[in-house]
Write a structure and sequence with these properties.
By secondary structure, this protein is mainly alpha-helical. The protein contains six helices and two strands. α1 packs across α3. The chain starts with a helix and ends in a 19-residue tail after the last helix. GO terms for molecular function: DNA-binding transcription factor activity.
Amino acid sequence: MISQTVEYALRSVVLLAQRSPALLRTDEVAEVTQVPRAYLTKVLQALSKAGIIKTTRGAGGGVCLNCDPAELTILEVVNAVDPIERIRTCPLQLKAHGANLCPLHHRLDAALEQVESAFARTTLAEVLAEPTRSVPLCDFPTNSRNEP
């Protein structure tokens, strides 16, 4: 249900929020999030276009979160890279059905609505603040240029 692109985008914004306000090189983000660099570049472009991250070119450049994690919902991240497609009309294009979905497609759309609603109610800050014994992502490399 959640695409690989969405998973990669969420990993990236979690990392950027954890390291905020530091600028991270794309290579650093790729390493920590375990996302292939070429794929990550496309994901970061979509997040930048949506205004979720900010990119800076050059030797001292990198990427950083461009919004407050308390204001950024998971749904906004999802919609930036691979929006949830609700079922509005019959996917089989049956004229007799039109916007009157059959019971199967009605239930599938209801499930998508619940996912969309849950993501809209959840901010990035809430995800980061949730008590857990599992640290999001993986251990951070200690050789980051943004650490003392």
